[in-house]
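Sequence in, structure out.
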Amino acid sequence: MKLILWLLSLHQLVWFISGAIAFSVITAVYQKLKQEELVCKSGFSLVVFSALMGVLAVLWSYDSYIENEIRAANMGLLLFGGIAVILALFAHKQVAKARLLKNSK
């Protein structure tokens, strides 16, 4: 019973919902790329790492604000959010390359 109460507490619930959102984003992107026949290992790997870094940025900031560490929250957003954006740009570039290769065939 204590385990269920622990799982349903607000703090853990935020982590579970964030994990579900990350999984949903990764699955949706994979299905879209597969539908357009643009799945490449490097592009999809970058998408996965970008989504995970984005979720980590949000969770880091959430936990830091809960602990009243405003500077740590801002640095988490800056660092992990910046990495997520950079990885997303590289993923976009890889998918664009795959699209060009597909169209040239």
